Amino acid sequence: MKDIISLFFAYAKSGIKTRFQYKLDSVVSTFAVFFREAAGIIAMYFALLKFDTINNWNINELMFLFSLIFITYGIFIVFFMALRDFSDWIKHGDIDRVMVRPRGILTQLVLCGADWLAALGHGILGITLFILSANNVGVEWNAGTVLYYVISIASGVLIQGAVFLFFSAISIYFIETQSLKEIVYWNMRKFAGYPISIYNKFIQSLLIFVVPFAFVNYFPAQFLLRKPDMAAYPEWFMYISPFVGIILYIIAYIFWKFSMRYYKSTGN
Amino acid sequence: MGTYIQFAAIKFRNNMAYRFEYLMGILNTVLNFLVYLCIYRALYGGASEIDGITFSMVTTNFIISLGLTNAFSKNEMFLQDKIKQGTIANELLKPVNFKFRMLFEDLGDGFFKVLFNFLPAVIIAMLFTEIMPPAGVFGFILCLVSAVLGYIVLWYISFIVQTLSFWLFNVWGLITIKNVFVNIFSGALLPLWFMPEPVLNIIKFTPFDSIFFTPVQLYIGELQGYEILINFGRQIFWIAILYFIGELLWNKGIKRLVVQGG
Questions:
Q1: Distance (Å) from the alpha carbon of B185 to chain A's nearest alpha carbon
Q2: In 3D, which of A151, A160, A230, A242 has the Cα closest to residue A195?
Q3: How many inter-chain contacts (A to B, CB under 8 Å) are there?
Q4: pLDDT, position A91
Q5: B42 in contact with A at a CB cutoff of 8 Å?
Q6: Mean pLDDT of A212-233
Q7: pLDDT-derived band of residue A113, with 50, 70 and 90 as boundaries?
Q8: Considering only CA atoms, which of B177, B183, B174, B246 is closest in space to residue B211?
Q9: Are A64 and A221 in contact, with CB atoms under 8 Å apart?
Q10: Is it the case that residue A111 has pLDDT exceeding 90?
Q11: Which of A182, A183, B74, B216 is the most buried (most CB within 10 A)?
Q12: pLDDT at res. A267
């Protein structure tokens, strides 16, 4: 375990050095990511000056909902970037290099790749939204709610990690999975920013059962905020995020293990 | 002219090669449209109109902005890539106008996107919602003319940011930030009818609202008489200004250009 931690820091150090080689460029790029992701929220802020609420959620509650998406992604990308870019690794034959090293393949993948730029851009946005909203949404922050919040964040990271583990297993067969990721992950993530109760049943089911983003932000936020639209869903949905994360990750891991047996190098 | 059309045609055919990509692209567009509908339905909360803006005006605004976004798709890293790889030296030696070539490659891309991404998506979207018909033949023609002018405005904004790659190591960040301004201030994300007054007062002094919103207003028939003239005037005014800045930066940049190898 100690070995793994020191490996993570060694990778992180060299990763940060490479990434921030050009200081001005990395500051501008980080800000660009932050600003790009914030655009939808800024538009929503303007919209709610006119419309007040969306399905009874006001701007603070909406920002709180968004913050969970961005904070979990900021942490997720520190650990799972290699899985996000797994098809590139396969295309370039980089996996072969990983395979001959004396550590588990997945261990190396999780430790080595951190997209620090995205982590900062998304992470800072998430924290900003959290700070702006946390005290204005009627949540009483005590040991219980803080603990619930921390567990929710961890579950959110795990759920997204599992989704990307699925993608990387699929790219072993198909190699190019960019457009699939675009639809299944990036779009769904954008949709999950809003209370899912505004969508039709089809999109709701996608967000609950297929790409369970609802357990990353909507149901955890509901536990803390208790908005009336929760009545449409079973109450226990608010308590199962960690289990969704763990079970999904185990299934994804088994699928990934199984798929790796069929891995063929693209040659180099 | 024939040469440049060839550039557009090649770009168009390049896109044809990725069939799975464009099927996914259509699905993506439809999905985004459905979600947008849900969001605005929730915002309207059952009301048929808010401040005189009907729900179908909002969806029409979205459809037109979406179509123009497709038509206006650009390869914004084009110039930087050419400079970084050093191939710009060869490109400049060729007997074609570099900027025209850039423009026509973008047109080829845009034409493909409208035909194979936007049109199928609109046909599917019409199953789910009503889209307003244009305000007469005349209104539709005016809309098309102002869409062309809007395209030129947007293209020049992009071109200006791209020319900064003569000076900067990487313009990706600036392009991304520019796109945020375009998306918010042009009304592509939130129709300008709903923008708060102070923000609108700022937008009035920028070229952004003449990109998508003028065509939308002409399509719906919101502009009458001299308002039409004023809006066309604004578009032409901005094209002139942006063209001037673009030329200035381009000429300065070319003089400054140092190619290492290539």
A1: 9
A2: A230
A3: 95
A4: 75
A5: yes
A6: 93
A7: low
A8: B183
A9: yes
A10: no
A11: B216
A12: 58
Residue with tokens 């900064």: B164
Chain-chain contact of A25 with B173 (C-beta, under 8 angstroms): yes
Tell me if residue B54 falls in helix, strand or coil: strand
Alpha helix positions (H), B45-194: 55-71, 78-85, 88-93, 98-113, 119-125, 136-163, 172-185
d(CA B143, CA B137): 10
Q: Name the residue facing B173 among A28, A54, A191 (closest C-beta).
A: A28
Hey, of B18, B20, B21, B35, which one would you mutate to test binding to chain A, going by the most A CBs within 10 A of its CB?
A: B35
A29 reaches B (C-beta below 8 A)? yes
Question: How does pLDDT run across B215-240, given as a tens digit for each residue?
Answer: 999 999 888 889 999 999 999 999 99
Is there a contact between A70 and A123 (Cβ–Cβ < 8 Å)? yes
Q: What is the pLDDT of residue B261?
A: 52
Q: Say yes or no for a CB contact (<8 Å) between A36 and B173.
A: no
A85 contacts: CB under 8 Å, gap ≥ 6: A113
Mean pLDDT rounded to a whole number for chain B? 87
Chain B, nearest residue to A52 by Cα? B43
Q: What is the pLDDT of residues B183-202, one digit of tens each?
A: 999 988 899 999 999 999 99
Interface test with A, best of B30, B49, B175, B190 (most A CBs within 10 A): B190
Contact flag B38-A203 (C-beta cutoff 8 Å): yes
Residue A86's Cβ-count burial label (10 Å; 0-12, 13-18, 19+) is: buried
Residue A210 confidence class, pLDDT cut points 50, 70, 90? very high
A198 touches chain B (CB under 8 A): yes
Are the C-beta atoms of B101 and B107 separated by less than 8 Å?
Answer: no
Does residue B3 contact residue B100 with C-beta atoms inside 8 Å? no
pLDDT digits (tens, 9 = 90+) for B89-106: 888 888 888 888 888 888
The three-class DSSP label of residue A93 is coil
Cβ of B173 within 8 Å of Cβ of A200? The answer is no
